[in-house]
Amino acid sequence: MNYYQYRKKAFEYALKELLRQLSQFALMISTLFYIFLPGLVAGLFLGLGKVVQSDSVETANQMMVAYLLMQTLLLFVLKPVILDTPHRLFHFSLHSGRLKHLVADFTLLLVSHILLWLSLVLAFAMGWDKLMRAPHFVAFIVTQLSLAVVLLYRPQAVVWALGIAVVLLVLGLSNISYLVVFNAIVLVACWFKPLKFVYVPSQLNVWSFWLVYGLNNTWSLIWRMVIGLLFTLGVAIIGKERPELLHWYAPMVALIVLLLWASMCIKTTKLVQEHRLFWLSLKQQQAIVVTLHAMVFILYLLSWCLIVFVLDFDIFMLLTLLFMPLLQWCAARRPKSLAVCWASVSVLIYMIKILV
C-alpha cells in the first residue's frame, strides 16, 4: 500500500466513523431536514443567486460572508477526517517529503468541499459569457478555495478574517473590492501567532465552573451560534424576496435554534453526573444543575432576541421561548426522546398558527 492508498483508506474510515458518531442524532437530524429541507435547498440556491446578481451590493456581500461562514463550519468538522489528524505523524514514516502530503490534503479537501462544488455547478450552468459578466462570482469561488486551504493549516487566521469581514460589511464596498480586502486580511492573518487564553478562577464556584467549561469548549458554543446566525440571515433574505412568507419561516428559525441549544443539555448533564459526588461533597449539586439550565436558557434567549431583531417579532416565536424549559428537561432526563419532543412542539406550534 502506497501513501495515497493509505490516505484514501484513512479518509473513508474516518468519514464512516464520523457518521457513526452522528448516528445518535439521526432521528433529530432526519426530522429537522424532512420538515424544512425544501426551504433549506431553496435558500442555498437563492443565496448563490444573490451572490451572482443582486440589486443590492450589501446583500451580495452579506450572502458571501454567510456562505464562507457555512463552509468554515462544515470543513472544521471534516478537518480531522481530511488531514487524518490522529495519525498525522505516522504519515512521515510512509513518506518523508511534504509534497505528497500537501497533494493528498488538497485532493481530499476538494472531495469534501460541498459548497465549492455547488458554486462550480452554478458557474458551469451559467456559461462562459454570463460568468464573465459576473467577475465577482469567479473571485468568490477562488476565495472559497483559498479560505478552505488556510483553514487546514492556519485556522485562527480564518477566525480573524471572518470576524473582520463582518465588521467590513458596514463600509458598503463593491463585491470585488470586498473580496480583495478579505483575501488580503486572510493573508496577513496567516502571519499572526496563535493566541492562547487561559483562565484560572481564584475560587471555584458553580458560575466559574461553567465559565471555564465554556472557554474550554468554545467549539460547542460557536457552531450553535453560527448555524443559528446562518438560518436567521437566510430567512431574512427570503423575507426580502417574499415578505408574505416571513411569518411562516420566522418561527421555524426559532425552533431550529431551540433544538440546537436544548441539545447542549445532553452533554453538560452528563458532565454534571460524572462529578456528582464532588458537587455533593460541596453541597452544591442542586446549584450546579440550576446554573446549568439557567445558562443554557440565557444563551437561547440571546439567540432568540437576535432572531426577533432581524426577522421581527411573531407571537408564535414567543411560544418557542416558553417551550425551552420543557426541551431542556427532556434533553437532561430523556435525551433519546429529544427529537420526538422537539418535533411534537414544532407540529403543535404550527398547528396553532394554522388554526388561529
From TrEMBL:
<dbReference type="InterPro" id="IPR045614">
    <property type="entry name" value="DUF6136"/>
</dbReference>
<feature type="transmembrane region" description="Helical">
    <location>
        <begin position="160"/>
        <end position="185"/>
    </location>
</feature>
<feature type="transmembrane region" description="Helical">
    <location>
        <begin position="287"/>
        <end position="309"/>
    </location>
</feature>
<feature type="transmembrane region" description="Helical">
    <location>
        <begin position="197"/>
        <end position="214"/>
    </location>
</feature>
<feature type="transmembrane region" description="Helical">
    <location>
        <begin position="245"/>
        <end position="266"/>
    </location>
</feature>
<feature type="transmembrane region" description="Helical">
    <location>
        <begin position="60"/>
        <end position="82"/>
    </location>
</feature>
<keyword id="KW-0472">Membrane</keyword>
<feature type="transmembrane region" description="Helical">
    <location>
        <begin position="102"/>
        <end position="128"/>
    </location>
</feature>
<feature type="transmembrane region" description="Helical">
    <location>
        <begin position="315"/>
        <end position="331"/>
    </location>
</feature>
<feature type="transmembrane region" description="Helical">
    <location>
        <begin position="25"/>
        <end position="48"/>
    </location>
</feature>
<feature type="transmembrane region" description="Helical">
    <location>
        <begin position="221"/>
        <end position="239"/>
    </location>
</feature>
<keyword id="KW-1133">Transmembrane helix</keyword>
<feature type="transmembrane region" description="Helical">
    <location>
        <begin position="134"/>
        <end position="153"/>
    </location>
</feature>
<keyword id="KW-0812">Transmembrane</keyword>
<protein>
    <submittedName>
        <fullName>Uncharacterized protein</fullName>
    </submittedName>
</protein>
<dbReference type="Pfam" id="PF19632">
    <property type="entry name" value="DUF6136"/>
</dbReference>
